[in-house]
Specification:
Keywords: Membrane, Transmembrane, Transmembrane helix. The protein is mostly helical and 61 residues long. It has one domain. Helices cover 77% and strands 0% of the residues. The chain is built from three helices and no strands. Helix 1 runs antiparallel to helix 2. The longest helix is centred in the first third of the chain and has 22 residues. It is elongated and about 45 Å long.
Length: 61
C-alpha cells in the first residue's frame, strides 16, 4: 500500500468514525482526539513525497 493510499484511508476512516460515534453515542459526546489525529496523519501522508516516485522520475529522465 502506498503512502498516499494510506492517507486517503485515514481521512475516510476519520469521517466514518466520527459519524458512527455521533450516531451511536446516546449522549452525543465522542472522542475528538482520535478522528483529529487520523485526519492530520492522512493530510500529512498525502502531502509527503514517496521515495518510489522520486526514483521513477529520475530513471525516466
Amino acid at each position: 500500500m502506498r503512502i498516499k493510499h494510506l492517507g486517503i484511508f485515514f481521512i475516510i476512516f476519520a469521517g466514518l468514525y466520527t459519524l458512527v460515534e455521533v450516531v451511536l453515542t446516546p449522549d452525543g459526546r465522542f472522542n475528538l482526539f482520535l478522528p483529529f489525529a487520523m485526519l492530520v496523519t492522512g493530510i500529512v501522508s498525502l502531502t509527503r513525497k514517496d521515495k518510489n516516485e522520486k526514483i521513477f522520475k529520475r530513471k525516466n529522465k
